[in-house]
Specification:
InterPro entries: Aldolase_TIM, NMO. GO terms for molecular function: nitronate monooxygenase activity. The two termini are 38 Å apart. 38% of the residues lie in helices and 17% in strands. With 354 residues, it is α/β, with parallel strands linked by helices. The model has no long low-confidence stretch (mean pLDDT 95). Helix 3 links the parallel strand 2 and strand 3. The longest helix is centred in the middle third of the chain and has 18 residues. The protein has two domains: 245 residues, TIM Barrel; 89 residues, no CATH class. Bound molecules: flavin mononucleotide. The site of flavin mononucleotide (FMN) has 29 residues, from strand 2, strand 3, strand 4 and strand 7.
């Protein structure tokens, strides 16, 4: 079977992927990850209105410093969509206008299987099948549903440790990756010839990976590569407030210091997630007060004050601002260039972590 890097010819094994993080993964971060031989994803998230502009900024970076090994068919970048909140018509319109569409899209959190199917079909037809369909799932059942409606080219297997949104009911990568891969392979093995047009998919693991040891671990479990969000929060190119980034650098012992919850979504008004999803972030006063039973309106007022206080909203001891990050926060110790992080993750030791 061809390795995953064969489908993305500018990439180097082991494949390192920059997860699309809403509002944070912009063109510079995505470009630097791809330029270092990984795949950077732009985060469209729930708002597709700025996608064309982000892609054109990415293209100008590419024009200024071309990435070796790219084809003229696709751009060496992916785009992530949060399906329950994003507009499929706008997305397909933006993608169909491109001579070179992105190499991949990363579809996450559909409100139904049908919605996932519509996105996969819509994007395949808008891009003449040039753009590969990646689907992020956090349990085996969702993977089987996804095969039936979307025939993903790549599964992003999201484990319980992942920062940002994911399913409350999910396992850690050490059990989830092998079980999900076995189940999907068995499913494809049981299909009669002619039942499906696509090859069995590839698998990328995400959630709690922050250094070369984590990358090697998921490769040993059978994954074809690793996707990271939390580690790239400490990339120079991340679009992130200094207060947020500092809070990530300071946090340690992520099983204790982070939690998956809907408290932050409610406080910042990012509501509408399908049932069963919560966002993992660093525990701060907003969460503690909610657990203590402070009335939502009071907590919201305090949150708004923190929002108005800029970086002070993340100040140690007084922090209230949402700080989405995964359990690997304790392994993220310094800010570095995204390209150096990619090289270090591959074992090329470009960054000294401590
Ligand atoms: C700050 C932040 C924002 C995120 N935003 C998105 C998003 O917009 N779309 C998405 O599919 N996943 C999002 N995720 C989840 C990632 O896709 C990925 O599953 C996760 O970052 C992997 O775990 P890690 O953070 O431990 O590396 C986000 C994660 C973080 C930390």
């Amino acid at each position: 079977m061809a390795s995953i890097t064969a489908s993305y010819p500018w990439t180097t094994a082991p494949l390192i992927v920059g997860a699309p993080m809403r509002l944070i993964s912009g063109p510079s971060l995505a470009y630097e990850i791809s330029a270092a031989g990984g795949i950077g994803f732009l985060a469209a998230g729930t708002d597709v209105s700025t996608l064309s502009e982000s892609l054109s900024t990415f293209k100008s970076l590419l024009y200024t410093s071309p990435i070796g090994g790219t084809s003229s068919d696709v751009l060496p970048v992916g785009v992530g969509f949060i399906l329950w909140g994003a507009d499929l018509d706008l997305a397909t319109k933006a993608l169909s206008e491109l001579l070179e569409p992105p190499a991949a899209v990363w579809l996450f959190a559909p409100s139904s299987s049908e919605e996932l199917g519509s996105w996969a079909n819509g994007i395949r037809s808008a891009t003449n099948n040039k753009t590969k369909i990646w689907v992020q799932v956090s349990c085996v059942a969702d993977a089987i549903d996804a095969i039936k409606v979307a025939e993903p080219d790549v599964f992003v297997i999201q484990g319980a440790d992942a920062g940002g949104h994911g399913r409350y009911a999910s396992a850690g990568l050490i059990s989830l990756v092998p079980e999900l891969i076995d189940t999907v392979r068995e499913y494809y093995g049981n299909l009669k010839e002619g039942d499906t047009s696509s090859l069995p998919p590839k698998f990328i693991a995400a959630g709690g990976i922050a250094d070369e040891r984590g990358v090697n671990a998921v490769l040993a479990l059978g994954a074809d590569g690793a996707a990271l969000g939390t580690r790239f929060l400490a990339a120079e190119e991340a679009v992130i407030r200094k207060g947020y980034q500092d809070a990530v650098l300071k946090a340690a012992d992520g099983g204790n210091s982070t939690v998956r919850t809907d408290v932050y979504d409610k406080l910042r008004g990012t509501i509408g997630w399908p049932e069963g999803y919560g966002g993992r972030g660093v525990i701060n006063l907003s969460y503690r007060d909610a657990v203590k039973g402070l009335a939502f309106e009071e907590n919201e007022k305090l949150y708004k004050v923190a929002e108005g206080a800029g970086d002070k909203g993340w100040e140690e001891g007084n922090a209230r601002m949402t700080t989405y990050a995964g359990t690997a926060v304790g392994l993220v110790k310094k800010v570095a260039k995204a390209g150096d992080i990619v090289k270090e993750l591959r074992g090329e030791a470009a960054v000294q972590r401590i």
